[in-house]
Amino acid sequence: MASTKVVKVPTIDFSNYEELKPNTPLWESTKIQVFEAFQEYGCFEAIYDKVPKEIREETFDMSKEIFEFPLETKVKNISEKPMHGYMGMIPQLPLYESLCISDLLNPQSLQNFANIFWPQGNQHFWYVLLHCFYLFYFLIIIIFKFEKKR
Q1: What pTM does this model have?
Q2: What is the pLDDT of residues 121-144, one digit of tens each?
Q3: Are the beta carbons of 77 and 86 closer than 8 angstroms?
Q4: Residue-wise over 43-60: b if at least 16 C-beta within 10 A, else e?
Q5: Mapping DSSP to helix (H, G, I), strand (E, B) and coil, where does residue 99 land?
Q6: CB under 8 Å, gap of 24 or more: what pairs does 27-34 form?
Q7: SS3 88
């Protein structure tokens, strides 16, 4: 009889991000947690209570809204990078769809993504997207000290 193993995505608490100063024990332990989560799972759940509940809920609601757009709109999200852009309509995975923003740390890429779905603009979506951008920016640029080469 096969056993089912439940995999839980790790959670990392960023509620005290103001205290994340380089070379402190909190900084180092958080860096290790993020690195290990990415290495083992490819993702993690970020706990950050400073983002208002409304913004979190709107983020998920808008994600649902984007996937309700017609296929003709979603396929406009293209990328030169493999596994980026729109992925869906895969016969072996009929319920699978994904939309990826190719250069998440570039605000122009975020704007281009938003314009696919709302060519006339959607300020609220843009606001929510920028919140996510700054969280990712903090994680990748600040914590890991990566510098984007231009």
Answers
A1: 0.63
A2: 888 888 777 777 777 777 666 666
A3: yes
A4: ebebeeeebeeeeeebee
A5: strand
A6: 27/143, 30/143, 31/143, 31/144, 34/139, 34/143, 34/144
A7: strand
